[in-house]
Amino acid sequence: xxxxxxxxxxxxxxxxxxxxxxxxxxxxxxxxxxxxxxxxxxxxxxxxxxxxxxxxxxxxxxxxxxxxxxxxxxxxxxxxxxxxxxxxxxxxxxxxxxxxxxxxxxxxxxxxxxxxxxxxxxxxxxxxxxxxxxxxxxxxxxxxxxxxxxxxxxxxxxxxxxxxxxxxxxxxxxxxxxxxxxxxxxxxxxxxxxxxxxxxxxxxxxxxxxxxxxxxxxxxxxx
Length: 223
Fold this sequence. Notes:
223 residues, alpha/beta, 7 helices, globular, disordered N terminus
């Protein structure tokens, strides 16, 4: 007589992947690729819209990670950002080595893996890697130059708070990947904004397979 396997004999499901973004248009881009099924996910993948600003981001992520489905989730902060370095263009990608905010610096998990995966997922687009700094407002002009002088490559309002909220809920892999929507030579107030925004949106629609690859790599046994 065969015995059926009990619940205790089943392997634990892989941790989920939670992708946090602030804006509806960012969620639209990321969920569009999620529905399209491009790339194989290592486990459940969810896209969370947090709302704008660091406080909203931290609260929303902490709330999501309190749910059983996301308790052990890896977290990626994603969406658009402002580039700080001369020569950057809308549609360029930023992979954070660390995020910086008022509460301190948070190292990111496996940025090199993300860079390699994004080069394959979005060929022909420049991928920058370095510090990503946080702000509670849109940064322009002189303030952009001041942030660049600290060594940061880009700025956004939610990534640092997202990762801080994620780690406050327990240890887990965290990362931040942003698409530049404006840069020193292409500020949002200038002509060409619409074209730059369309370019950034198209790039954001293409990143999900790279996120899946990063997530899968974290689940592989280390030698």
